[in-house]
Design goal:
Blueprint lengths: L3 H8 L2 H6 L7 H10 L3 E4 L15 E6 L2 E6 L5 E7 L4 E2 L1 H6 L5 E4 L3 E6 L1 H10 L1 H27 L2 H18 L7 E3 L4 H8 L3 H13 L3 E4 L2 E4 L2 H8 L15
Antiparallel strand pairs: 1-7, 2-5, 2-7, 3-4, 3-6, 8-10, 9-10
């Protein structure tokens, strides 16, 4: 029997908002999704949710808070691969491949639902539409990684920063946490530096240059797009790789 109350409740979650960009979720899909949300955990800042190299890891659906995925190199240096926001599915590869290939660390207090392998496989068997939506989300994340490689290899520091902050804004708008004018952002200049292959001093200089050009302002935990259209043109930001144009399956 479909629990309509649970279905309506889960519909307002960031995860459902994100997946609804790809597929129109039926009440039965939402009910199965609500089962994935039942095992809720809280992670303080600095407490890794996923550990690189560890087997039998759970996956997580972020309900609130921000995290970063990163790898530690042999010399002890860290490379941040991406930042995770509400609605993101963490550790899907860890569940499917049985061994985590990266770490995930909260950078704010994170509330997330733990998803075990058997629960995930059951959910996919019960509702193939949900499985397709999760596959879409994973493919979209892969497309973002490709753009990040282009950022590091072919965009200068200012273009890199502008493109990244525009992408983050588009991701947050998808789950109802951002607007075209800007969004709240807890990322420090040190975190941005680790993600973009820059020094914190260089990040500070780039943000100042973008502000002085009238393109964007990042101060006191908020990103403001002072001239959104000009910023998009400056960064050559093409939203097509994010695939946010509405459900493909009804």
């Amino acid at each position: 029997m479909i629990d309509n109350t649970a279905a309506l409740s889960i519909l307002d979650s960031p995860f459902a908002k994100k997946l609804s960009a790809f597929v129109k979720l039926a009440p039965s899909d939402l009910t199965v999704m609500s089962d994935l949300y039942r095992r809720r955990r809280t992670f303080p800042i600095g407490m890794d949710m996923i550990h690189q190299g560890q087997a039998d890891q759970s996956a997580y659906v972020v309900a609130s808070g921000w995290a970063c995925s990163y790898k530690i190199l042999q010399g002890g240096t860290r490379q941040i691969v991406d930042f995770q926001i509400p609605g993101d599915f963490l550790g899907l590869r860890s569940v499917l491949f049985r061994t985590a290939d990266h770490n995930v660390e909260p950078i704010t207090l994170v509330q997330a639902s733990e998803v075990r392998q058997r629960d995930l496989l059951y959910a996919f068997a019960e509702t193939p539409r949900l499985a397709m939506a999760v596959l879409w989300a994973a493919s979209r994340d892969e497309a973002m990684v490709v753009e990040h490689l282009v950022d590091l290899g072919r965009r200068n520091a200012s273009e890199r920063m502008a493109h990244f902050l525009l992408e983050l804004g588009a991701r947050l708008r998808l789950v109802g946490l951002g607007e075209r004018s800007g969004y709240s952002c807890p990322l420090s200049q040190y975190l941005l530096a680790d993600a973009m292959g820059l020094s914190a001093v260089h990040v500070n200089r780039v943000l100042r240059e973008l502000r002085e050009e009238g393109l964007l302002t990042f101060q006191k935990g908020r990103v403001v797009f002072d001239d959104y259209d000009a910023l998009v043109e400056f960064a050559s930001f093409d939203r097509d790789y994010l695939d946010h144009e509405g459900p493909l399956l009804n």
